[in-house]
Amino acid sequence: MDLLHPLTLNATDLAALALLLVTWFAVGGVIEHPPAKRVSVSVLMQHYRRAWMAELITRESRIFDGNTLFGLREGTAFFASACMIALGGGLALLGNTEPLTGIARDLEAETVPVLLLQLKILLILAFVANAFLKFVWSHRLFGYCAIMMAAVPNESGHPQARKRATAAAEMNIKAARHFNNGLRSVYFALGATGWLLGPLGLIAGTAIVTTITLRREFASASRQAILDDLY
Asked: Cβ distance 170 to 176 under 8 Å?
């Protein structure tokens, strides 16, 4: 079979691809808008972000707050840089799929079209690109948050203190939401690599990533520690 024959996706490939995309959207929706009786870690942490900004008002020295926010921005910058490197490597691989062609042929026991391999790589890169955009925007929002925090008066009786602290908290929450979305895109990019092993590999990758993501948000020891403190 010619490796350059026109691209055709069988029903299993299409079903696996649809499962990945639907699951990605569904997982994000459930985490950001969880049921009231089973709140996710991401939503629980919003309480601490608001409490942080409330404490900021009366904290005499704000060096700790600045260092904490700097650490958050460094995290977004690190992941954005990693995504840039991954995108560069993926684009280079698109121009030379020969290394993957032999591996895929051995694993699937059949000749794999070059166009299909390129499509699989593009799917991974699409998730990585989305993650990059989320991390960059999160980094910028944390920068906005830093400026808003600096504008919070250092006295609880000031008429603008509570209002500005609340606004800074909401900006912090929005930045964290985009950061979390970026992380989920990275997770699902890893799951999408399973497609290189065939449609069943993609289904397995989707299932593994979904299980890990939901467990960390809804059934992890860290979640229980937060609940023990809040309730």
From this structure: no
Residue with tokens 């937060």: 226
Q: State the residue for tokens 């409330």.
A: 54
User: What span, in angstroms and rounded, lies between the C-alpha atoms of 149 and 72?
Assistant: 14
How many Cα atoms occupy the beta-carbon half-sphere of 131 within 13 Å? 29
Chain segment 136-180, per-residue pLDDT in tens: 999 999 999 999 999 999 988 899 999 999 999 999 999 999 999
Residue 141 exposed, middle or buried by CB count within 10 Å (0-12, 13-18, 19+): buried
| Angle subtended by helix axes 98-108 and 114-150, to nearest 10 | 110
Residue spans per domain, the chain: 11-22+39-230
Cβ neighbour number for residue 121 with a 10 Å cutoff: 20
Evaluate if pTM is beyond 0.85. yes
Residues 6+ apart with CB under 8 A from 28: 181, 184
